[in-house]
Amino acid sequence: MYQKKITYHQENNEELSIRELLKKWLIPKKWQHFFRIQQDVLINGQYHSFNTIVQDNDVITLNFNFPPRTEQHYLPGNDPVDVVYEDDDIIVVNKVAGKKTHPNKTDESDSLMNDVETYLKNGHPYMVHRIDMETSGLVLISKTPYLVPIFNRQLSSKTLHREYLALVNLDASINESGTIKQPIGQDPTDVRKRMVTSDGLSATTEYQVVEKNADFALLRLNLLTGRTHQLRVHLSYNHWPIVNDPLYNPHAKTGNLLLFAHKLTFSQPFSGKTKIIQANLSKNMYNLICADLTATKKLT
Questions:
Q1: CATH superfamily of 161-263+284-294
Q2: Angle CA 89–86–218, to nearest 5
Q3: pLDDT tens digit sequence for 113-138
Q4: What does pTM read for this prediction?
């Protein structure tokens, strides 16, 4: 059983019932039902009707005494993990380029989730989101399956937000900022690839130029949707392919894909507080970006 104790802090003089507070915390309706019929929500150690108004500094105990939606464990991995943030419920790690976020088969042990399985020792990781194998950067992982649906709702409502940095080849001119809205679907000629297609799923990417010269630009990218290969497809479609992209960049590949998930913003479960986590570029990626931006001409 997973148990969570929270000291409730009233915001803006709000008066919320237990039912309204559970809804605010994005707890699924089915779980709210279990909490009520099993009397597994306690206020200062006592069960109360769900219409009870929660008072400032009340201690709320949630006993998740029912099966989670998913329960998947991984084989132990062998590589160390770069932990950027960790608390009792979550861990944020900096994934290296070239490593899968999760295994595709139960007998695989070479993904990030396998490595975190080893790191947690007495616990297990539960995947909240993934990034492409070729992409490096931040990945949020839950230590309990009971938080995954809450984070899924944050992903849907955009309160869990991911920001990327990418170095691109400028095969066409680029504005200082903009929004790319192009639907993305399967490439019929290559099962590995996606493409902009009129019958694809809606996809929206925001970009801002951080620095540029005649040949390259460093972009800050915001995902407003989460389609497979979205950033890579959108940028390539606009003739700004990400440097070293093996699938979408026609230029010669000289190293790892220069796409980095550098910032995560989300709402801490059961608190409403915004958490922002950032990671520094690896030394190798930083040096490559600096070299490419300064190799030919002065920055504009």
A1: Pseudouridine synthase (3.30.2350.10)
A2: 120
A3: 999 999 999 899 999 999 989 999 99
A4: 0.89
